[in-house]
Write a structure and sequence with these properties.
The chain is mainly beta and 270 residues long. The chain folds into 2 domains: 157 residues, Immunoglobulins (Immunoglobulin-like, Sandwich), CATH 2.60.40.10; 82 residues, Immunoglobulin-like (Sandwich), CATH 2.60.40. Helices cover 4% and strands 44% of the residues. It is built from 2 helices and 18 strands. The strands form 5 sheets. A 5-stranded mixed sheet has the order 2-11-8-4-6. Strands 1-3-7-5 form a 4-stranded antiparallel sheet, with no helix packed on it. β17 and β18 form a beta hairpin. The longest helix is centred in the first third of the chain and has 5 residues. The radius of gyration is 22 Å and the shape is elongated. The relative contact order is 0.17.
Length: 270
Amino acid sequence: MKNILLFALSIFIGFSVIAQQSPCEPQASLQDSTFGLWPDTTQNLPIAVKEVYYEEHIQIKTPNTVGEVMGDPFYTEGIPVNIAPFNIDSIKLVDVEGLPESMSAYLSQADSIFDGNAVACVTLYGTPTADEVGQYDIVLNIDGWITVFGATLSLYGALGDYEKIEGYRLIVQSSASIGEGENTTFTLSQNAPNPFSNITTIELYSKDYSNYDFLIVDLMGKVVHNETINAVVGLNTIEVDASSFETGMYFYSIRNGQDVLTKKMIIQDF
């Protein structure tokens, strides 16, 4: 039975693919995956920097059945059958809410319609301005239709609202962290495991004996942890107990008065 669930972008109108530096191409290797997005909302989007061109591709494996999106079982008002097993023919993204005004989005297919059980790609791009420094909650609104017993069913009409993909947060910073190259006196690893719920470990490699300020801040810029690391030459291990922290995304930084390196970590319940 042919079923339709559509997926579109309204905010890219007036922009061409030429505006992108690296046009997004769907990754065929994701074809055998179930419905999902890469990076997902746990990994989140890379940090943007004001007045620096930003471009991030989101790969989407479109759902094969209604249940992959809506859950199983799934019933809509007026239809006393579980429609979760019904196959999806195509999807469309109505809009992407929450982007800074200077940024837009582009779909890897011109008409913005993608088959179900296929791979699509959405690009977020633009150059944030100095006035746009801050954090932005991004929401992807999905509308669509399925055909049930010969009748076309509107997702929006059945639910009274769009199906929403929430959880993405774009952060625009005023400056970039110093890269971990030869000009820095230390390097900082990504914490592991990440995401985590209680304990995670961070490795600091120092080129000399030095004292470092180690800070963890939340998305509002509040310092939730601050300590001094008396580093030895070589590898130093920092263990973080975040059992008292709320779930969410945080940033941890190491600084020595000259350089600073910052990375993000995710705390979540398992």
